[in-house]
## 1
Amino acid sequence: MPEEKFTPPAGAFTRSVTNRFSHCDPAGIVYFPHYFDMFNGLIEDWYTQELRHDYAQLIMGGRFGFPFVHIECDFKIPSRIGEVIELTLLVERIGRSSLGIAIVCHRDGVIRLRARMVTAMMSLETKKPVALPQGLREAMEAYQRRTAAA
Amino acid sequence: MPEEKFTPPAGAFTRSVTNRFSHCDPAGIVYFPHYFDMFNGLIEDWYTQELRHDYAQLIMGGRFGFPFVHIECDFKIPSRIGEVIELTLLVERIGRSSLGIAIVCHRDGVIRLRARMVTAMMSLETKKPVALPQGLREAMEAYQRRTAAA
Amino acid sequence: MPEEKFTPPAGAFTRSVTNRFSHCDPAGIVYFPHYFDMFNGLIEDWYTQELRHDYAQLIMGGRFGFPFVHIECDFKIPSRIGEVIELTLLVERIGRSSLGIAIVCHRDGVIRLRARMVTAMMSLETKKPVALPQGLREAMEAYQRRTAAA
Amino acid sequence: MPEEKFTPPAGAFTRSVTNRFSHCDPAGIVYFPHYFDMFNGLIEDWYTQELRHDYAQLIMGGRFGFPFVHIECDFKIPSRIGEVIELTLLVERIGRSSLGIAIVCHRDGVIRLRARMVTAMMSLETKKPVALPQGLREAMEAYQRRTAAA
């Protein structure tokens, strides 16, 4: 399988993760569920640092949840202990209560894995979907516009 | 979203998992990466108990790995602490070194989530894909035949 | 270090755990934080199955928590993927809201690791310790008596 | 229980950790095994960044392991989602192949939890303890001296 190159769009939200001993399995590579945990951490930071909506406050204060309804992921190159990988978040689609994102994991400009994930905002009280609050939606839309590939 | 019913085919490999305190997040539901860990445990048991090829021995003795190359998952109903859920494994496609499976997570005949996963057998020494050994392939094919829906 | 033998007292609560691929680290042995997760699972099952107080119900219904205040653990023999280990829970001390337990992890009558853990029952609403309810305390005391070494 | 104050000695190795959604349990506080995982991450960074011995290289290249032989931990104040906590590593005792460390988790100068952990360097090939290499030992001793409280 040929390498697939990746350069994040200007302004895209990217964070580094060091692959820990505890991420790795007896084969010496990252055990795949840990990637999904890294993705959730990236999303938390994106809400808090990029969208300026504190994720912890949305959960514990607002009593909202963001469960995933769909995930798909292609794993291209395994990652090893000690390697630093980059995770970039891109917005694909903003619905009434749903959000479709792509997360690209890369290193040295080459894709390691790529995921598409759809989440739905819900109330932890009613257990029902809720519409994305206006301020949050606008922050998502602005992010999507400014990171759209030319 | 309407409920989706599920009855495992006769002879399908199904195991129960109790949702632990540690599986659950501050929203009180199973944190999604734990499902992927449960899936891996199910696959381990399927190799060892159903296909009669000891998974630990394949990894540590045979120096083989079974990394995932593709995963997709639809989450339909969240699961809560203390609930016992059922996981059923079905074979979709057997390639030269790859294996496509479906895992259905259900309770009381209703689907909670459903995943499709493709794994590739590889050598931990050469880091290259290897053809599924004949005995393992035959066990997979026999399982696929006897669990194919009528 | 010489082996240390262990035979659980008659009636002691013991559960088996299969060491999973995902429990193991690049050194091929169980990554130690997973033991603590296994211990918590054992305690959950002990409440529900042995003391007949449903753990999930205590947490989600009763809004109680059982945080640890002290843990100590001696690791004697590492465990490997595919091995089945036994976990035995013994009661050391029952306080007003606190509970001191020992957990012995063993295989073939030889100790793998041994932990002592102190937990305190608290209210998730007030964040304060609460006295162990009478029925729960009596179940703990009865268990302690019937599993005390002669 | 009164608060216990803590100021790291000058030059002590301290790293921040953000408590993630995935660290927290249905009670909304960090699930305790995650602290041990954080501790291991701190130790990895300490080897690599402070002692200048690359941890990943020691494991995968040198085929060494650093299993724990003893752990004790006192949990004083729970931590919540979104909180940033500080972890400080101090050296207590350097043996032939063993290392005794203390890890203090604190926030705003107040101790959250405190652990003492003893690890032993071993060969992954022979499964036997090995003497700490001279360069590594000297780096540990120098760190211990420069961070000893006056």
Note: The mean pLDDT of chain D is 95.
## 2
Amino acid sequence: MVIVKVMIMGVDGYLGLPLAMKLLSRGHEVVGIDNLSRRRRVREVGSWSATPIADPFVRFDAIQEFYSDFTFRFMDLRNTTEVEYVMYKHKPDAIVHLGEIPSAPYSMIDLEHCNETMTNNIVGTNNILFAMHKHAPECHMVKLGTMGEYGTPDIDIPEGYFDVEYRGRKDRLPFPRQPGSWYHLTKVHGSFNIMFACKIWGLRSTDIMQGVVHGIVTDEMVDDRLLTRFDFDEIWGTALNRFCAQAVIGHELTPYGKGGQTRGYLALRDSMQCLTLVAENPPDEGEYRVFNQFDECYSVNELAEHVVKVSGEFGIEAKVWNIENPRVEAEEHYYNPDMKHLPGLGFKPTYSLDDELRITIPKLMEYRERIEAKRERIMPTVYWTK
Amino acid sequence: MVIVKVMIMGVDGYLGLPLAMKLLSRGHEVVGIDNLSRRRRVREVGSWSATPIADPFVRFDAIQEFYSDFTFRFMDLRNTTEVEYVMYKHKPDAIVHLGEIPSAPYSMIDLEHCNETMTNNIVGTNNILFAMHKHAPECHMVKLGTMGEYGTPDIDIPEGYFDVEYRGRKDRLPFPRQPGSWYHLTKVHGSFNIMFACKIWGLRSTDIMQGVVHGIVTDEMVDDRLLTRFDFDEIWGTALNRFCAQAVIGHELTPYGKGGQTRGYLALRDSMQCLTLVAENPPDEGEYRVFNQFDECYSVNELAEHVVKVSGEFGIEAKVWNIENPRVEAEEHYYNPDMKHLPGLGFKPTYSLDDELRITIPKLMEYRERIEAKRERIMPTVYWTK
């Protein structure tokens, strides 16, 4: 199956924009979908992207200047009829579904944000599945999940499924999920729903359990209008993004709790490499496969140490201050996830954490004033227990 | 902890009504909540209950004649503020949460019914969890799940959790779930959400993986106004209910496919016994426990044989006709679920399948005309693959 037309749900997001350009540069047609809600939700919590991202129509016009095979459609994935219409109209060969609300702290703000994250993510994905079944049954859905779906079990983490022996009998079963926020729960719910749709309708999907992506720049960002967002506040920023931003404005780096929380990490360019490989190599009809997608594993304390070291190379003397953990999570734990499927498709990581930090930190220094302006949105105010 | 005040979500349903009376007869105060949507949804598919159930206000007035400690509140669990208000107002010691859309075929009708079942069940349960956290943190939530959350793995099914050994390491993990319809998926999503709320907020909950309940009568139904519903159509009836109704109107009994689908079954009176035991014996603070709740396991073909046998005792000559299976499910499989927690609390099954059928079939014969009137709503029209 040759992949020509790719639809990206969430094309206005951190990964969506660089992925669109990456796929276009490889000769694919790209239809980008977004309701622009990420911009609104970041404003809602009083923050903004460190990078001064272009207005959506400026950004999408700029892409079209470079790549004529790009189309943008403003659309909300919760709108059943619109989703069905774009699937009928475009019949994509692949969909990369990044169009979900992606923040654990946002989902933990209160009941309203919990329910909104749940219904947005579940209904949007269901709408795509039904529309695929009706109008593009051969299409491959690449769904962005998270390594956080697994939580931190005290055994190795396989890729989606494992061979179990229990009381003398054997079966191959979905690996138990132990998500740690309402947001992470929505990703688990989505995984179950997609697995079921593949089973009953013969749809094909790759569910990406992605580690934390870091970095700002990809080769296709030849113009400031094509910069992707970089969030650093307590709600939308990852721990690593926060540490980079803190270093740049002379704020202590603040790991939560003991800082032994270990996760998989991946440079933005390598995430693009992976998503492209996956989209171009669809599974068989009816196949639901799960790929773990990360490069290196680090604890939060180790991340902070790397940021201290690399920011030192740029004349910054950063300090680390472990603060009270606003989350409920294991702060010291076993962590040994598999990552075999992607190398099997040819994935070769190119940028280590330090390599990427040597690009990210000086780039962020250009935007020091924008970070400084939102300094008070970095420390945690959303607590899991309250 | 002494349980005095119990709130029943879904008190107008098949289990809710007899449970209210059972708990009231044991001296509890009962607040019953319902939005009466089950009546509407059964009408929507062109069917009705075989038993002529009383109008809601007649029914609830009748309960109050016998038990003064009963209150009914008309309310939709999706309404966040109302749920918070009843929790603030009543501060129940236990909640028995039966207030979800409970039909696999209903959820499989189309995308609209899928999304409605998902959002109704997920948002309703989230609203209760947040309201408990805020206004009744000691309250015990007894949540109705289904044995169908597990699917049919080729290994034994424990109660919620299992000890896994994998690549030389051990952990105790949630048992993998493999639900078989959008409805069953909502029950899995709910289980994950409740598990998380117990973990972060210290709530206590018992998640009931219930088998299929059968039967119409309980001891407290001393008056026709207190009859519970008995659904027999393709959407709302269980296989066993359908077979009983088919026998009564001289229709062939129609197992789906090969009929080797095996599930756990439980008489209505024994379900009431279990739910009462569970509600009266709460877990510890922060404990999320899973109980499998059934008595005997039967294949669908065996159910049909029992209905043929018992209906023969009442002069009915029933025949069996295995029809095309509208569902996607294993028609022959291993099935060996545990059921140890409930006997540990004192559960003793009292009515076998045949005992209960000897009550159900003659009772249904009184309502033969009502079943005959909806004869055309028994055969399947909702297919999993279409």
Note: The radius of gyration of chain A is 20 Å.
## 3
Amino acid sequence: MSNDYVHGYDPREAVRLQDQATTLVQLLHSDTVYPPARNVLEAGCGVGAQTVTLARNSPGALITSIDVSETSIAQARRAVQAAGFTNVTLQQADIFDLPFEPESFDHVFLCFVLEHLARPAEALKSLKRVLKRGGSMTVIEGDHGSTYFHPDSEYAQRAIRCLVELQASAGGNALIGRALYPLLRDTGFDDVRVSPRMVYVDSSKPDLVEGFTKKTFTAMVEGVRKPAIENGLTSEPDFDRGIKDLYRTTEIDGVFCYTFFKAVGKRV
Amino acid sequence: MSNDYVHGYDPREAVRLQDQATTLVQLLHSDTVYPPARNVLEAGCGVGAQTVTLARNSPGALITSIDVSETSIAQARRAVQAAGFTNVTLQQADIFDLPFEPESFDHVFLCFVLEHLARPAEALKSLKRVLKRGGSMTVIEGDHGSTYFHPDSEYAQRAIRCLVELQASAGGNALIGRALYPLLRDTGFDDVRVSPRMVYVDSSKPDLVEGFTKKTFTAMVEGVRKPAIENGLTSEPDFDRGIKDLYRTTEIDGVFCYTFFKAVGKRV
């Protein structure tokens, strides 16, 4: 599965994920706080970008973070150690074949994971099995179809679509954010609440212009330049024009919009 | 100009605008409160859907509401009288030829107006002239390009695009919400702050399913069926399939997203 991860595993990508988490921490994570002594499973922790935030916001919780990639787990371990947290256990494990007893965890947390899986509903069912009754499932996902900007650009929209199509051909779904409500509901979670987390960026917010529009979103689209061209989804000039137009939205009269979705459900 | 107003002036449309305002009142208007004895100009009040909310939220303010259409002003007058407000003066007037002295108003308020104008920047400049120095300009607009939903549907997206194209050929811009920041900035307003007001609807929110997705948004798209077909923008079966797919998003596993933008700037 690790080869299908659309963003790849190179060091620059790891930096981008860290940049992303740092910029969006408040927006996405500030309302996720687990009580002391509770067992929390973070599934698909990747390089630990969100793990550090989880550990910081819930210093008394006992966090187990897993990822299918041994390389990512090693990076996540270094990130957690560098941040000085001792309440995180890191472990290589597959969401579809979890090495835990049923009802082992009080809470389960997933961030930017389901979008990469061909069978997100089965992943949720597998995770539900290790979640205690009455425990919570929290899922955060983006939705690339929520992207729009000023000045508008067909080239930029097409460059984004390359990423959506590559993710789809790897079995994922870059438009999964809008579908979290039915996904949690259909996998048997109760009292499902979804809240959108819209990132609105104009030049009055220079930190978001740099940290989100440029370093997170446009860098992510730029990251698929090679596979997008190699797979015939676009031409070099068209893709480069799209990237140029995305950067154009970061100028003084530009605007950029993107929405993440956060869902919380309960296991009954 | 009144013939170009894309939604038309029929009674059903007036009801839809009222439905819309009632459902979205909190989201769009709760943070607009003008102090007692201040002179407020509401430009392009239409049938008075927002006028009543303005008068309710700022009972001590002296509100002057204008519209280019004498018919709309008459309807707005009835709406204001029916609601029992006495702090509103209604008057037929053209935004581009305002019958007021320079710096007559402490505040100016505009809601769902600029999207219908061919020269929104000139409208803002004209309104700025009658606004006192230090006074505020508040603008609320939608953005039909912010619409996405689950299940996704190319037909539904194309039906929405018919409305966008009809509005464009009437000289308007249905994607203006995202551009409010540069628009206010470029017309010389200071300290411009834009906040998105996203409407997220799933079946856990039955009031929004009815009041927004069905009665406001889908009804608005349905309203352009005839001109869209007559102008060759779509075929009957395609458009009807699009509307059916929009209603599909109101079922138990459906999700619907739309974003309004609210901008506030200061005249220096």
Note: Chain A touches chain B through 29 residues (CB under 8 Å).
## 4
Amino acid sequence: MPNLFKDLPATAGEEDFVELLSRPGVRIERIVSFGQSTPPDAPYDQDHDEWVLLLRGSASLWVDGDGEHNLRPGDHLMIPAKRVHRVTRTAANEPTIWLAVHFCLDARITPPAT
Amino acid sequence: MPNLFKDLPATAGEEDFVELLSRPGVRIERIVSFGQSTPPDAPYDQDHDEWVLLLRGSASLWVDGDGEHNLRPGDHLMIPAKRVHRVTRTAANEPTIWLAVHFCLDARITPPAT
């Protein structure tokens, strides 16, 4: 039985992205952060909607027009397509585990079916 | 900020289903159980695939052809369409919180867009 809280990456290194499920139009992934944040000069600006749920740890997420959110486990929000956003902080002393659901309605970014 | 672990239902009563997000082809819901199980004579037999993630509590899930799984927080699995399944147990002394993603590819059950 796969478990979201197991097989965590080592603390030092890049953010870790694991695809859990991919269907036409939808992709679910686990993201593990360990103190990383999005570079201020390279925010996310995606062509698709993304729903994120913070499961463990803590983070701050800035969303254009909406300000900065401090996220605790259980917090979730939808980030609409083309809404510029940036993770400004993730916990430095513990892993921060996210679940992200990408709604890839744009054919250009529809992932292959599994 | 909505939080999956807040606004839990009272302990006595029915299982609680809250729709978090609905798109053409995809529906995400939170389910809170408190000791309930699926009646043996009325198992689930769905026309669509469902991905489930157990977030808190514990449960046992029987899936036809696959046996019984004991689920702990973080465990997740895909239940294919038409695969008969049944929740045989959920924790009696604490809420069991699930995240369910329904892939409603069949037009008959595509939910309305929000």
Note: Chain B has a mean pLDDT of 89.
